[in-house]
Amino acid sequence: MTQKVAVLGTGKIGEALLSGMIRAGWAPADLLVTARRPERAEELRTRYGVEAVSNADAAKRADTLILAAKPQDMGRLLDELAPHITADRLVISAAAGITTASIEERLGDGVPVVRVMPNTPVLVDEGMSVISAGSHASAADLAHTEEIFGAVGKTLRVPESQQDACTALSGSGPAYFFYLVEAMTDAGILLGLPRDKAHDLIVQSAIGAAVMLRDSGEHPVRLRENVTSPAGTTISAIRELEKHGVRAALIAALEAARDRSRALASGSNS
Ligand SMILES: NC(=O)C1=CN([C@@H]2O[C@H](COP(=O)(O)OP(=O)(O)OC[C@H]3O[C@@H](n4cnc5c(N)ncnc54)[C@H](OP(=O)(O)O)[C@@H]3O)[C@@H](O)[C@H]2O)C=CC1
Ligand SMILES: O=C(O)[C@@H]1CCC=N1
User: Fold this and answer.
1) Range of the domain at 241
2) Which residues neighbour 118 within 8 Å (Cβ) at sequence distance 6 or greater?
3) Number of domains in the chain
């Protein structure tokens, strides 16, 4: 029998995942979505040819439920699911900070739960999804989760104790690179280049650097040293980065993201 997968709370990451699953060959007829606003449900129906249903119906009809609402909305969503969910379903949560234990407690009855932290590059099949099993999730549940998220990028299993750190690194990670590109493009403007040219130069440099990081097998330090000629331009830039504490700022930034992920576990809104 065909397995149905439902995405509940189909916003930015839910839609990115949905589109990736369809690209990877899932039939829209085997996918369900839920949305809080009727106009959003209609948009998803039209764009992807999937059926939009209530959260209760998704719990009754789908074998696998992917929860992609904000951490702050998860309590209400779980309350809507709890009366309808049974232990033969698999619940996958993509919500930052929310622990499998807290989901298990709300859903009860030994429902298997897997926690996943994906990132937005699932949109281009280059996602990084970090996966941890809850206490009732089986090897088959983990394999099924990997099948879904592996269709849109890489997956990595980690102990759940590392999920908040992974959220800081790869969940939020793309944002840091976008931020860097933004700032470097501004630098191009300061140096007198038109914005579109500056953007293209930086983006292609980022792509080239990313492919070298992935494929060369070289340590990033070696790759950077290869760009840094004696008495050249790069070392002048590196000295400024060090002077302005950019390395320390990055370490502090990711620590703050990790701490925020931990705080979301306790329902923090601020
Ligand atoms: N964005 C990212 O890069 C990543 C996000 N995540 C996690 O994914 C989750 C979603 O984030 P993101 O996509 O950015 O947020 P969005 O706000 O874009 O998406 C959340 C969606 O859930 C909907 N929603 C909320 N409550 C319900 C409900 N009870 N029933 C149905 N739909 C509901 C919202 O509806 P409405 O439109 O009405 O608000 C919204 O469309 C978060 O938990 C986040 O931690 C994980 C990895 C990466
Ligand atoms: O900013 C956030 O909270 C979400 C989780 C990881 C990426 N975006």
Assistant:
1) 173-264
2) 13, 16, 17, 94, 127, 128, 129, 149, 152, 153, 171
3) 2
